[in-house]
Write a structure and sequence with these properties.
alpha+beta; 218 residues; globular
Length: 218
């Protein structure tokens, strides 16, 4: 039987694909990464936010196919419970699931106003008023978790499902020069410095500079 396969879209634009990749790396599941062509419908659905249910990222493992980042995270937690994708404490575990779910289903204004673009840099970017409440809520989540658990990750010393879910936000905040307090800025930098994030970023730099339809959409 072939080894596990993770199907992704663009590394530069694909925020959901990045989450799936990080979940596999946190769980220490060695996956073969297959990248969809940007011409394929599943890739466009993810990148252009055309569907509430994306078929990528998609994990294939031991005859099981799992798509949707939260489902991948839960599957990997059951497969590798010792990896720490979810906290051991029940209350913390519920909190972790809650803020991961909030990221999964919310922050639509931030998604459209600050689209994922790993390679881009926009110093002095002005966050539109519609997106600022999303930024404020994310910062409040980070402050609460970091204050309660001491960092450097949202639930303590090691990354969890929640960190994988908020990692593309860290990339967006870096791209668009979003002002953060020192605690949140340190968290952003911790996530961006993860070896898996560095690897993903280096792969993103090798992609074409523009995807015309994305530039029009956003």
């Amino acid at each position: 039987m072939p080894g596990p396969i993770l199907t992704v879209t663009s590394r530069n634009y694909g925020s959901w694909s990045l989450r799936g990749w990080l979940l596999c790396r946190i769980a220490e599941l060695d996956v073969e990464v297959r990248e969809l062509s940007l011409e394929e419908d599943a890739a466009r659905a993810e990148l252009l936010l055309l569907s509430p249910s994306f078929l990528v990222p998609r994990l294939e493992h031991d005859g099981v196919t799992v798509w949707d980042t939260l489902a991948i995270g839960e599957y990997l937690h059951e497969l590798r419970p010792g990896a720490g994708l979810l906290p051991a404490d029940p209350a913390q575990r519920a909190h972790c699931r809650s803020i991961a779910g909030e990221m999964h289903s919310g922050f639509a204004n931030l998604r459209s106003a600050l689209p994922m673009n790993v390679k881009a840099r926009h110093p002095g970017f002005r966050v539109v008023s519609g997106a600022q409440p999303d930024v404020d809520r994310i910062v409040a989540i980070w402050r609460e978790c970091l204050g309660a658990h001491g960092g450097p990750f949202l639930f303590g010393a090691t990354p969890t499902l929640a960190d994988a879910m908020y990692a593309p936000v860290c990339s967006r905040f870096h791209t668009y020069d979003v002002a953060l307090d020192p605690v949140c800025a340190a968290y952003r930098d911790t996530i961006l410095g993860l070896p898996a994030m560095v690897e993903w970023t280096e792969a993103a730099r090798a992609e074409p500079d523009r995807v015309e339809e994305l530039e029009i959409e956003f």
